[in-house]
Every structure is written in structure tokens, then in C-alpha cells.
Amino acid sequence: MPISAILPNPAEDGDASVFVYNPANSQLAQRPVQVVNVRDNKLQIVGDLAPGEIIATAGVSFLHDGMQVDLFEAETLR
Predict the structure, then answer these.
(1) In whole angstroms, what is the distance from residue 39 CA to residue 24 CA?
(2) What is the pLDDT of residues 53-68, one digit of tens each?
(3) Which end of the chain has fewer surrounding CB within 10 Å, N or C?
(4) Which of 45, 39, 37, 40 minimizes the C-alpha distance to 6?
(5) 39 to 31, 35, 43, 45: CA distances (angstroms)
(6) Cα 54 to chain center, whole Å?
(7) Residue closest to 47 by CA, chosen among 65, 64, 35
(8) 28-51 per-position pLDDT tens digit
(9) What is the pLDDT of residue 72?
(10) Residue whose C-alpha is closest to residue 5's, from 53, 39, 16
């Protein structure tokens, strides 16, 4: 996981959150995770995440639980 995807929780040591995109309603869900290792500017985390879920990786300090978003599609820039 890139470091930019993590929203630290300073109130609890070692805990953080990520924002998971829900394609059914185009909203973000904030999920708690725990950082267990850091290597080459990437984090190893554990938490309630499933393979294939879309995680926000930029601007996480401006996001909130339940926020309505649109996915950025790189193809639209061509």
C-alpha cells in the first residue's frame, strides 16, 4: 500500500484508516487498518480489506466517510 493511501490516527498508536470505494453507490467507506511494516515507501497493513477493492491513494486528508466521489479515469486525459 502506498504511504499516501493512509490516514494516520494520532489518538491510537499504530492505527490508521484507508478509504475504500463502493462502486454500488460511488461513496467512500473509511476502514481502520494497522500498519505492520514499512519498506521502500510502501506499507504492509492488516485490516478488513478484500482483494480487488479500490483504495483512495491521494488526497486522503480531504476525504471523509460516506463522501460521494467519481473515479479518476486516466483514459479521459488522452
Answers:
(1) 34
(2) 999 999 999 999 999 9
(3) C
(4) 45
(5) 22, 11, 6, 11
(6) 8
(7) 35
(8) 999 999 989 988 888 899 999 999
(9) 82
(10) 16
CA 30 to chain centre: 8
In the numeric block, the cell 500498519 is attached to 35
Distances in Å between the Cα of 6 and the Cα atoms of 18, 20, 33, 74 are 5, 11, 9, 22
Q: Could you give the count of Cα atoms lying within 13 Å of 49 in the half-sphere of its Cβ?
A: 21
The three grid cell numbers given for residue 14, joined into one nine-digit string:
499504530
Cα 12 to Cα 67, 77, 78: the distances in Å are: 24, 40, 43
Residue scoring higher pLDDT (11 or 25) = 25
